[in-house]
Amino acid sequence: MPAWHSAPMLAYRHAFHAGNHADVLKHATLVAVLRHLNAKDKAWRLVDTHAGAGAYALHAEQAQKHAEYKQGIARLWQAPDLPPLLDDYVAQVRAFNAHEELVLYPGSPRFARALMRPQDQLRLFELHPTDHALLVENFAGDRQVMVQRGDGFAGLKSQLPPPSRRGVLLMDPSYEIKTDYAEVVTAAREALTRFAEGIVMVWYPQIDLRESAQLPQRLKAVADTQAKKGWLHTRLTVAEPNDRGFGMLGSGLFIINPPHTLKPALGQALPVLVKLLGQFAGAGHRLEVSAGL
Questions:
Q1: pLDDT, tens digit, 9 for 90 and up, residues 81-127
Q2: Strand 145-149 relative to strand 121-126: parallel, antiparallel, unpaired?
């Protein structure tokens, strides 16, 4: 696991972590959010500020280095009787693999593209030159998808609000530099100023760092003053700190203007995720919403 302290800005590559427990929580929730938007014909736009490479080979050297997917998606791959939110997520991963074997894992852009309709749009930002090149290759010739090498936080002004006034902003930086936490809060505030009804999804790592612990409270303050439909906060804790007190214990999602269908769906899914992904007796989850939800 990365230490999230002082790594260079472009050091992070998601290929090392693809399909881990954090991806399971993030992508299962993303699928549920987009399913909700698809219940109406009106178009939506998804803006992904840190899109990564788009897709990952789980048998490649990078994914195999720590094999984090074995503690993530692999534990759901053959699990029976999954609740609807997780069953839909696993079905999307299966559709990305040609055979029964789990060899490929889709990133957020691929999950979104699979659920897009002809009227919907995908706007992807990625700074890392290698991952950007892979992302371009993944979506070459796709007119519904814009791929840009650049700072996704800075790119929001050109993408929000979407013409349809329906959409999702997904922010999941690596947080390898502490300023990412403040930038997420600033970007959420600016996004809601432009697009008060937009769904804002923020993923964050659960680590022993003040900025991580404070992020949900800072986002609550933004949502309570600017959001039209409140907020939802969920967290999945799967691991204990290592001997040095470092490591990612789990991860969280803070969702502003969440679909009304999301709380009950996560309420069913989270206990199952704790059972399947928990690595110690103290594994657990949190699910809280603002008043009125």
A1: 999 999 999 999 999 999 899 999 999 999 999 999 999 999 999 99
A2: parallel
DSSP code of 246? -
Q: Which residues pair with 233 in a beta bridge?
A: 254, 288
Q: Which two tokens stand for residue 138?
A: 């993944």
Give the 3-state DSSP-derived string for 171-236, with helices as H, strands as E and coil as C.
ECCCCCCCHHHHHHHHHHHHHHHHCCCCEEEEEEEECCCHHHHHHHHHHHHHHHHHCCCCEEEEEE
Residue 149 counted as domain residue: yes
**pLDDT computed for residue 7 by the predictor:** 36
Residue 224 catalytic? no
- Residue 129 in any domain: the answer is yes
The C-alpha atoms of residue 203 and residue 172 are separated, in whole angstroms, by 5
What residues contact 89, with CB distance under 8 A and at least 6 apart?
24, 27, 28, 31, 32, 76
Q: How many domains does the chain have?
A: 1
pLDDT digits (tens, 9 = 90+) for 193-248: 999 999 999 999 999 999 999 999 999 999 999 999 999 999 999 999 876 666 88
Range(s) of the domain holding residue 28: 22-289
Residue 17 lies in a domain: no
> Does residue 12 sit within a domain?
no
Cα 89 from chain centre: 13
The gap between the terminal CA atoms of the chain, to the nearest Å, is 35
CATH classification at residue 156 = 3.40.50.150
**Order of strands, edge to edge, in the sheet holding 284-289?**
145-149, 121-126, 45-48, 167-171, 199-206, 250-256, 231-237, 284-289
pLDDT at res. 129: 94
How many whole angstroms separate alpha carbon 20 and alpha carbon 108?
13
Looking at this protein, which amino acid is placed at residue 49?
Answer: T
- Candidate list 23, 120, 172, 180, residue with the active-site label: 172
Measured at the CA of 190, the angle between CA 153 and CA 218, to 5 degrees, comes to 90
